[in-house]
Each structure stands twice: as structure tokens, then as C-alpha cells.
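Fold it.
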Amino acid sequence: MVKLDHLAITVRDYQASRDWYVKHLGLRVEFEIPDRRTAALQDDAGLTLFVAEDPGKPIATCVLTFQVDDVEKKHAELAAAGVKVVHLPSRRFWGYGAELEDPDGYPVWLWDERTMREKSGEPT
């Protein structure tokens, strides 16, 4: 068996990133290592996202894709909360979904099973 268990990203401020992912995407704090300025955040499926503070490292080197219950509802909720929206829910090259940006510039893509099945296809 092979299963992705965790992913680590570098951030400018681990506490701000921790709070953003907890508040906006509902991740849970699994544990923190304050002297290493790192937090481990877990999703509903058990995948852990480490946010590790290192202001000197390059950031935004990957895309974080989250499955949600309803991409249009989640997008509206996040936009109302002031989250930076890059693309409204629409057909994208990867399917149907919304594209956001976290505080460090990481692309965050949102999708759900229903709209991916019903609305994806060739991007416009």
C-alpha cells in the first residue's frame, strides 16, 4: 500500500498560516512545535499539512487542492470572509472548481464531486 500521509510547506508566519487553514478550510491542529515554528494540521481524511516558518525559503511551490461539500457555497463563504479569490467557480483546465490564494501565495483549488461530474469538461 502507498498512501500520502503528510505534506510540508514553508510559510512566512506559521501561526497566521495555521489560523488561515483552520478558520477557512476547517483543518484541525494535530500538534505544534513552537520552538521550530511549525504546526501540523489535519484534514478529515487524516492527511497532515505541516506549515513550517522559514521566511528565507522560496514559497508557493505547489498547489493545494481541497475537496469540499459544495464548491460554490464554500467559495461564497470564503469570498465573504475576505479570502483572496483568483478564479470564481468555473470550468478550469483541471475540471470545475474555484481557485484561491493563501496568505503566502500558495494556490488553493477547491472542488466537489457533484459539480466536477456535472460541470467539468473543456475549459472556456
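The chain has three helices and eight strands.
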